[in-house]
Design brief:
Blueprint lengths: L5 E4 L10 H13 L6 E4 L15 H12 L11 H17 L5 H6 L7 H31 L12 H12 L13 H17 L2 E4 L11 E6 L5 E10 L9 E6 L9 E9 L12 H18 L15 H11 L6 H7 L11 H9 L5 H19 L3 H6 L3 H11 L17 H4 L9 H18 L5 H12 L7 H9 L6 H6 L5
Parallel strand pairs: 5-7
Antiparallel strand pairs: 1-2, 3-4, 4-5, 6-7
This protein binds zinc ion.
Zinc ion (ZN) binds next to helix 8 and helix 9.
């Protein structure tokens, strides 16, 4: 039943550490299920749960994580193990019919990576330093536990709780308190647009006379440095009842020399609209989203291709996040930050110690975070790397999973995979089969590009134009790794990513 996705607690004591709001939500969840007087915590998509960082009772943490990890494998009507093996068999059969060795080979043949071997090589290169770093983080957390009156061996359900104590002590930045420095208009004009003008020479002119699809949507005409027209940028910041959640970019018109069209692109966010006359103050996450989505917008705007099929963001899935990730590098870049991050009342810049903490926290807990991600990416490759015969021979899902994780050295029981196979919806019911590696694949390119900009003067027209001409403009019309070599002068190196995540030796 639905209780597979929830854990029932008998008393508020068991949920000590939750906020009053979280506790009353759990009470309401219980009442909704006819369990008045008790408390129901619903599970999230991934293995971990946000409450694991605050629940003070070990037994409650243990029950929550155990319930999360056993989803889809409890021997009841919601057991996914047979259907999972069937999906794997059918995908292997389809790949064979299409002339591929396995499903991963079929999928990656149409990606930047090109082959499962290339994907596996990257994941293996990252796994060893990530696992080593996770072990070091584990040792530090164990030392905290050992300093307590009643020591115990740290387990997976304790990780988030003790990590949160370290975060509070070492990296605490009150993210809500930062909002007065992030006024939306200033972030857009003096941050996002300022960085783009500095790099690419493009300018933005608001056109309130041009009607958009909703009164809240703003239209900007974008011009090149020489004054020629580039396209239109639409900015749709606020949440509405009728608007899809999340943040995304889309193209209304794609550039094409064949059709003689210029780009019209939209950035959507879902920021709550303030009361009339009040400023929109963003969180740091929302600022990050603005820069990120604008990286996609630039990819669309800068397209210079003949066929619209190849314009801008029409690139492989494991390449499409690369330009948007790169654009995030300017958020904390000193010239950009001092331009947009000004206190709404005083005009003061963000205090230097806050900036230092934001930088310092980037590598925090990355041994764990990288390991749990890589473990899931490896499971995806393992399930989709079997041929028809091998797929038919899998009888025990848990054993297959354990063997795969041992194979790559990510079988630390204290650092579980972000998704176990039986609830890995991304790759078994979503569209990411054999493609969960994409996030880190594009981040390798991103970190390597960030290093190039840092070594080549940072925020300059020369650097921006080179990135625009050789990577962004060609869209999907050229082999992406060839475009990357054109820009970087060599293939991507994983070293900058290791440094960023604190995994360097
Ligand atoms: Zn994106």
């Amino acid at each position: 039943g639905p209780n597979d996705l929830a854990v029932v607690f008998d008393s508020a004591d068991e949920l000590d550490g939750l906020t009053d709001g979280e506790l009353s939500a759990a009470a309401q969840n219980a009442a909704d299920r006819g369990l008045e007087g008790r408390y129901v915590v619903t599970l999230t998509l991934f293995t971990g749960h946000p409450y694991l960082s605050s629940l003070t009772r070990r037994e409650s943490r243990r029950r929550l994580l155990a319930a999360s990890r056993s989803r889809g494998s409890r021997g009841n009507a919601n057991d996914n193990r047979d259907v999972l093996r069937q999906i794997v068999r059918l995908r292997a059969q389809r790949a064979a019919l299409l002339g591929y060795e396995n499903h991963a080979a079929y999928v990656t043949s149409d990606e930047t990576a090109g082959s499962p071997e290339a994907v596996r090589a990257l994941l293996r290169q990252l796994a060893a330093p990530a696992a080593a770093n996770a072990r070091a983080e584990q040792a530090a957390l164990q030392a905290m536990v050992d300093a307590e009156p009643e020591s115990f061996p740290l387990e997976a359900h304790d990780w988030a709780f003790y990590t949160e104590r370290v975060r509070e002590a070492e990296y605490a930045v009150d993210r809500t308190a930062l909002r007065p420095w992030f006024e939306a208009e200033r972030v857009l004009v003096d941050g996002v647009f300022f960085a783009a003008t500095s790099l690419y020479g493009i300018t933005f002119t608001e056109r309130p006379d041009l009607p958009a699809y909703h009164p809240d949507v703003r239209v900007f005409e974008v011009h090149n440095a020489d004054g020629s027209a580039l396209g239109l940028f639409l900015f749709d910041l606020y949440t509405r009842d009728t608007k899809r959640g999340g943040a995304w970019m889309n193209s209304i018109v794609t550039q094409s020399h064949l059709r003689g069209t210029r780009s019209i692109v939209v950035n959507n966010l879902n920021v709550p609209k303030p009361a009339a006359g009040k400023p929109t103050l963003l969180t740091l996450d929302e600022v990050t989203t603005m820069f990120h989505e604008f990286g996609h917008a630039l990819h669309g705007l800068f397209a210079t291709v003949t066929f619209p099929h190849f314009a801008g963001t029409a690139v492989f899935r494991d390449f499409v996040e690369f330009p948007s990730q790169v654009n995030e590098m300017w958020i904390l870049w000193p010239e950009v930050l001092s331009s947009y991050a000004r206190h709404i009342d005083t005009g003061e810049p963000l205090p230097a110690d806050v900036v230092a903490r934001l930088h310092a926290s980037e590598a925090f807990n990355q041994g764990f975070a990288t390991s749990e991600y890589l473990a899931a990416a490896w499971l995806d490759q393992a399930w989709h790397g079997v041929n028809v015969e091998e797929a038919g021979a899998v009888t025990d899902v848990a054993a297959f999973e354990a063997a795969a994780l041992a194979d790559i050295g990510l079988h630390n029981p204290v650092v579980p995979t972000r998704y176990s196979s039986t609830y890995f919806a991304h790759v078994f019911s979503g569209g990411y089969s054999a493609g969960y590696y994409s996030y880190i694949w594009s981040e390798v390119l991103d970190a390597d590009t960030v290093e190039w900009f840092a070594e080549n003067g940072g925020l300059t027209r020369a650097g921006g134009d080179r990135f625009r001409d050789r990577v962004l403009g060609v869209g999907g019309s050229k082999d992406p790794l060839e475009a990357y070599r054109d820009f970087r002068g060599r293939d991507a190196d994983i070293a900058p990513l290791l440094v960023r995540r604190g995994l360097g030796s």
